[in-house]
Design a protein that fits this description.
The structure is a homodimer of 218-residue chains. Helices cover 39% and strands 21% of the residues of chain A. The first copy, chain A, contains nine helices and eleven strands.
Chain lengths: 218, 218
Amino acid sequence: MEEQISVAIVGGTGNLGTALAQRLAFPGVKVLVGSRDKEKGRAVADSLTRSLGKGTFEGASNRDAARVADLVVIAVPYEGHAPMLTELKAELQDKTIVDAVVPLNKGKPFTPPAGSALLEAQSILGQETRLVGALHNISAVDLQHPGAPLGDVLVCGDHADSKKSVIEFLGKIGAQGLDAGPASNAYVIEGLTGVLIQINRKYKSKHASIKITGIGER
Amino acid sequence: MEEQISVAIVGGTGNLGTALAQRLAFPGVKVLVGSRDKEKGRAVADSLTRSLGKGTFEGASNRDAARVADLVVIAVPYEGHAPMLTELKAELQDKTIVDAVVPLNKGKPFTPPAGSALLEAQSILGQETRLVGALHNISAVDLQHPGAPLGDVLVCGDHADSKKSVIEFLGKIGAQGLDAGPASNAYVIEGLTGVLIQINRKYKSKHASIKITGIGER
């Protein structure tokens, strides 16, 4: 029997977090719905189990979720980004971490003092951490519908092996991950989410995503 | 007879500039190939006329090109961006200007002190100028081949009417322009070019472009 992969979603009761949890309802994936409030994490996990009728969900505190999981996705609002990483620093040392956080101010993208959320995470967790930026630009509405096609996921970071394993993992949820260069590119990929939000407003949609074209058969 | 539109390309002998000139070889479009060196502009214009066998090309100094054209595209390398706009400030006051300049350092994107090339242009030319950021992410290789499908063009700026007229103009060259929000978004769209360059390297292509999906029939 194949071993079960456990994925912790830090901020799993939020918009992106819950949507991502739904996408991960696959045999062989155990989803740890992390929350500041353990009971809230459990309530969301129970509700997902009931409403989807498949998948393995478990609620936990963000700390416990991060500690036991193989892969940790950071999906908190930007305001909670630095405090959360500081709090979970010990738990995150030997994990593959996907930072999906986007610096937004009333829906507008901005670059934080560190240059990007990812560079901020790198400076908090240390340069050697297996940290990758990804999943910023996927529509939460599309994630919630397992059949819906997803946009491409631009994956950046300075840790080549982690990028590779995250791109493999993305394949599991039906998303095409692409190596989009070093961590220094993160400000672009994070900022793109704000641009997509504004395109959604302008064109009255909730699904704006990107596809990279012109790089051959994929 | 429909009036001829004249488009000046400031930096028209460069990579993007020449490629764009080739795309504009349509009846009804007069392309002014601008160059620091008037003779070089003329040589490129003559060469385009000979090799394409269609289109109206004329070489000129950047200043003369900008002065007489209806629409001015800025396509110089980032190093020449601020000096060029300062030099052409008087000529650009009543024009619709497309700034296609991308701040790159050895193929890597960066944000200049003003926040983006577009905000830099805005601060040089004045807030009221009909300035739009566009055409950053289109592959020069694809522009050169009039049949090749082009990626979407993210158009940003604070001047709504100018964005609208640039999106219309883009339709002429077979490109789908999309309103991608205010000038403050330019750092993302400019930076995306650097990310696409790195994706090209990684996936051994010259054509990486973006398409925005999920915003309905277009």
